[in-house]
Amino acid sequence: MVEDMIKLAKEAASRAYAPYSGFKVGAVLVAKSGNIYTGCNVENSSYGLTICAERTALFKAISEGDREFEHLIIYNDSEKVFYPCGACRQTLVEFSPEMKITIVNNDEMVEKKLSELLPEHFKI
User: Fold this and answer.
1) Which CATH number does 2-117 carry?
2) Which of 29, 42, 43, 47 could serve as a FRET partner for 20 with CA atoms 20 to 30 Å apart?
3) Structure confidence at residue 121 (pLDDT)
4) What would the pLDDT profile of 89-98 be if each residue is shown by its tens digit?
5) DSSP for 26-44, written as a single string
């Protein structure tokens, strides 16, 4: 199943809109319901308006009614493993702190739990 999800993440990355950085990212979010959501990064000339692939997938899932997640697969076409940014980590941990995260690039695959990436997250 992971190989299929990586393929979907690569396809999502190919749809990214990244004219400023050239850094294309794709994400696949697997909900506990079994639903699958993809996302890509979408840049804007006003960088603060840019959205990451991870949050694109998450917001699609939330808008469709899913609130619990099992796995997030992130792909970027680079030589380095890039972890989710702080904003993505905090947004994701709101819903599933123990979610499995798989990060893939051209040469490596890293797996962690979200709680490992953001151990002392903000919560009320």
Assistant:
1) 3.40.140.10
2) 29
3) 83
4) 999 999 999 9
5) EEEEEETTS-EEEEE-B--
